[in-house]
Amino acid sequence: MLYLKFVSIHLKSQMQYKTSFFLTILGQFLASFTALLGVWFMFERFPEVEGFTFPEVLLCVATVLLAFSLAECFGRGLDQFPQLISNGMFDRILVRPRSAVFQVLTARIDFSRLGRFVQAVLVFAYAIPASGVQWSWDKILTLILMVVCGSIVFFCLFMVYAGFAFFFVEGLEFMNIFTDGGREFGRYPFAVYGEKVLKFLTYVIPLALFQYYPLLYLLDREQGLLFMLSPLGGLLFAVPAYLFWHLGLRRYVSTGS
Amino acid sequence: MKKYQALFTIRFSSGLQYRAAALGGIATQFAWGFMELLAFLAFYKANPGAYPMEFSQTVSYIWLQQAFLALFMTWFYEQDIFETITSGAVAYELVRPIDLYNRWFCHSAANRLARAVLRCFPILLVAFIVPEPLRMSLPPDLGQFGLFMISVPLSLGVVVAFTMLVYISVFFTLSPIGVRIVAALLADFLAGGIVPLPFFPDVVRGVVEILPFAAMQNMPLRIYSGHISGAAAVRGLFLQAFWFVILVVLGKLWMKLALRRAVVQGG
Q1: For residue range A147-185, what is the model confidence (pLDDT) as tens digits?
Q2: Which entry of A29, A234, B31, B211 is 20 to 30 Å from B256 by CA?
Q3: Residue A43: closest CA among chain B residues belongs to which residue?
């Protein structure tokens, strides 16, 4: 399959600069590690926030981090899409006989983004036994759904970000609130930020659907199937995200080069 | 001195041109500060006495941090300085009758100041009118505000002198990525960029409070909020001045060393 071919090419090319590759991984690791230390310092002072303990919050940290790092690794092309538009490279993509999304995605696959991935796995290794969750099949399935659907939601956010590049050349920084912000603030269950923020992150940008609600199910605070399967609801976000991108594509005017 | 003033003015006014980009930045930083504070609020709600800063002090700290992000962020570097070094174009710079360290220092400081001027006012304005308890408060008294006003430029000086060390290290490593990321992240963390220094566990706090990083955003933000006041604040200013001088002297010496062994390849 063509996509796998691209994956292997990108992997090979990044392996040519091994030192820089591993240093970038280390940097990514450290970046999320200082954030993790910050969380730990807060819990050192007082053992819970809104009824969640430190190991329970760590489940959140790891889920969001893992989902984000996967989305970033494979969706990095979308992240750099604004440059493709401003330097006119996108015109070349449009004349090739493959879908534009596919080509944008394969323009860049960044494995150094997996520094966060490593960290997320380590945090899971600690938090899964320490959180006191009685692990059963349904809960394991819930956790997998959280990570998989989470990375799809982040991926869609990258797509919306790229979609905005069709309309604005500058000032795209505000989308960082949802991508980087979603990662940073997703370290606490979203209910911590109050009801209004939680509603927004449920119905508008469905970050809470793969984080807060299924977490309640894992911790036995809610029993309903709705809570267990809520990450699937987040997948609906793909529809507006794709439509938005498509709308942008249709009104695309080249910048020339 | 005059040429540095001119350099500063040029860089400052060219930095002021990017207004549309600033708009995106303002929105991001405002939302960022807002979320940050909501998280702190949730922690304080359960037991306000458990934390080393009063909530109102934390509020001022976070809003100021977002408003003046451009002055204090340790992960912001001038890409063209890196390129000048790695491409060898630095040779042209050396021909000019101007000290390279001072030139780059001016360049960075002016750029940061321009970015901060564009961004800080809207953020501060909103921070002063959002509803309680997230509303930012005025400093305790005028004297404290005066100390804050001295502390800000010192803090900018320390941050820029620190980034200069990272630039100079590129003369030796030629690859800015590794050193830059690690240095920037550690400095940000130890300066109180992730959580304010008072929240650090007491074991490490004693050491962290006297490192050069504590002379960065930590000092002005805590002086404004009144968490450090009176004699302690004056001591803080001396700590900042001390580290500023040390970092500049170190940077100049290191630069001299780097330039002595720099080889221009011709071409």
Answers
A1: 999 999 999 999 998 888 888 776 677 888 888 889 989
A2: B211
A3: B43
Is B226's Cβ below 8 Å from some Cβ in A?
A: no
What ipTM, to 2 d.p.?
0.88
- Is B195's CB within 8 Å of A38's CB? yes
Q: Do B194 and A48 touch (CB under 8 A)?
A: no
Q: Is B194 on the interface with A (CB under 8 A)?
A: yes
Do β-strands A52-53 and A48-49 pair in parallel, antiparallel, or remain unpaired? Answer: antiparallel
Q: Which residues form the domain of B10?
A: 6-261
Domain membership of residue B240 (yes or no) is: yes
**Which residue of B51, B177, B200, B202 is the best one to mutate when testing the A interface, meaning the one whose CB has the most A CBs within 10 A?**
B177
Within-domain flag for A255? no
Domain that holds residue A148: 2-250
Q: What pLDDT, on a 0 to 100 scale, did the predictor assign at position B72?
A: 92
CB contact under 8 A, A20 and B177: yes
The two tokens of residue B188 are 């940000």
The reply to whether B267 falls in a domain is: no
Name residue A17's amino acid: Y
Task: Provide the pLDDT for residue A79.
Answer: 81
- Establish if A155 belongs to a structural domain: yes
Q: Do A41 and B195 touch (CB under 8 A)?
A: yes
Q: Do B182 and A26 touch (CB under 8 A)?
A: yes
> Is residue B248 domain-resident?
yes
Q: How many independent structural domains does chain A possess?
A: 1
Helix B100-129 vs helix B55-67: angle between axes, to the nearest 10 degrees? 130
- Whether residue B185 lies inside any domain: the answer is yes
pTM: 0.89
In a domain, A32, yes or no: yes
- Considering CB atoms only, which of A42, A170, A181 is closest to B195? A42
Q: Is residue A257 part of a domain?
A: no
Chain A CB within 8 Å of residue B173 CB: no
Contact A34 B194 (CB under 8 A): yes
The structure tokens listed for B238 are: 């001396």
With 0-12 / 13-18 / 19 or more C-beta atoms within 10 angstroms meaning exposed / middle / buried, residue B29 is: buried
Tens-digit pLDDT profile for residues B177-211: 777 888 888 999 999 999 999 999 988 888 999 99
Question: d(Cα A145, Cα A136) in Å, to the nearest integer?
Answer: 14
The C-alpha of B3 sits at a distance from chain A's nearest C-alpha, in angstroms, of 33
Overall domain count for chain B: 1
Q: Is B76 on the interface with A (CB under 8 A)?
A: no
CA dihedral (A179, A183, A184, A185) positive or negative: positive
